[in-house]
Write a structure and sequence with these properties.
28% helix; 6-stranded antiparallel β-sheet; 3 domains; 387 residues; Chitinase A, domain 3; 5 helices; 7-stranded antiparallel β-sheet; 25% strand
């Protein structure tokens, strides 16, 4: 039996638990319960939020599905486009092949073979020649450009061409380099040469109106109906200002004319002494060139002036004519004094020749030039080239 004023352990525990229960009930009584309307609204909000999330997910899925469908359509269109292109290409190739197969073959053309500077081999088809001037560069050179008024040196091979008949013109196809003053030959050849470069091979088809005209030229075997086919190798070209270039030489002979200096393109002045000329050929190098040696039988290209000793009058001058000239040397095509005095000299030289009548125009002289059979002649010669 417990003592008065003291609680047993059990009583203390019961009292403590009772107090806890009272506090809990008090707390529950202080927090009011959520009204039913509010509870319903919260539930509705949760449902709406869930529905919104579902709609977003559904929209995203629909967008992804639509993107996949569009991509599939694009791939399909590309496949069809490639197929269509392939069909068109195949059809086009087939049509092109058919058209190509039915096109006529191009007409045959003139064929030229052989190295530059050597005799060409020319094959002319059995067809009518073209009616207009044709200029074709078979080989393009890189040398001096040829201008009107220049002296061009060329290897020339010529054929007449009328209808389907052709014939080589031996009078024009000499096999030797030929001097051609551009602007003074036939029109078609002048037009072909002008603007070309040294080192070029040209093929020219020249109708009669651009060649020897309606009358032709019987001296070279060309009729007024002949078209000319020319193969031209341009070996050299010289302007009117071309002159000797080298080292001045001291004059060793006596009683010789004196030769002054001049500007490019003009003749040097020649002064004849007041004495009788020598009866023998006299040769004096005034400028020593360093080019090739002039050989017998070769073409010599030169500027020159000829003066009559007796009168001091100039009777011939390339400087006055405005273009150099070309001669075959050592074969009797020029006066003997030239053949004997210039063979062995070098290109670039200036040479003074005093030529007695026997080595000049002889006893007959040249009345056209005012030269008597007793006249000694004086030449100043600038050697420009040899071929």
């Amino acid at each position: 039996m417990a003592r008065a004023g003291h609680r047993t352990s059990l009583e203390f525990w019961v009292t403590l638990e009772g107090r806890k229960a009272n506090r809990n009930r008090s707390h529950d009584q202080e927090r009011p319960a959520m009204p039913a309307e509010q509870r319903n609204k919260s539930a509705l909000d949760r449902k709406r939020a869930a529905a919104a999330r579902n709609r977003v997910k559904s929209g995203r899925k629909r967008a992804e599905a639509e993107a996949r469908r569009q991509a599939a359509k694009r791939r399909a269109r590309r496949r069809w486009l490639l197929i269509a292109i392939a069909v068109v290409v195949v059809a086009g190739l087939g049509t092109a092949g058919l058209i190509y197969a039915t096109l006529p073959s191009p007409p045959p053309s003139v064929a030229v073979s052989g190295a530059f500077g050597a005799k060409p081999t020319v094959t002319i088809p059995k067809i009518d020649p073209p009616a207009s001037l044709r200029v074709r560069h078979l080989i393009s050179g890189h040398g001096t450009r040829v201008a009107k008024g220049d002296l061009a040196v060329a290897d020339l091979t010529a054929y007449t061409w009328e209808g389907t008949a052709t014939k080589k013109v031996s009078e024009l196809s000499t096999g030797q380099p030929q001097p051609l003053t551009v602007g003074s030959t036939i029109s078609g050849l002048d037009k072909g040469l002008e603007g070309s470069r040294v080192g070029s091979r040209l093929m020219l088809t020249v109708p009669p109106k651009e060649g020897f005209g309606s009358k032709g030229d019987s001296s070279v075997g060309v009729s007024g109906k002949d078209t000319l086919l020319l193969v031209v190798d341009v070996l050299g070209s010289y302007q009117k200002t071309a002159s000797a270039h080298g080292t001045p030489e001291a004059v060793t002979g006596t009683g010789l004319p004196t030769v002054g200096n001049s500007s490019a393109g003009t003749a040097p002045p020649v002064h004849i002494p007041q004495t009788a000329p020598s009866a023998k050929l006299q040769v004096q190098t005034l400028i020593q060139g360093t080019g090739p040696v002039v050989k017998k039988g070769k073409l010599l290209v030169a500027q020159y002036e000829g003066v009559i000793w007796r009168t001091g009058k100039v009777f011939d001058s390339t400087w006055t004519r405005g273009a150099p000239a070309g001669f075959q040397i050592g074969t009797g095509q020029v006066v003997k004094g030239w053949d004997d005095g210039l063979v062995g000299k070098r290109v670039g030289s200036r040479v003074l020749l005093v030529v007695p009548p026997a080595d000049g125009y002889g006893k007959q002289g040249s009345s056209q030039a005012g030269i008597k059979g007793t006249d000694t002649l004086v030449f100043v010669v600038d050697i420009l080239g040899t071929y």
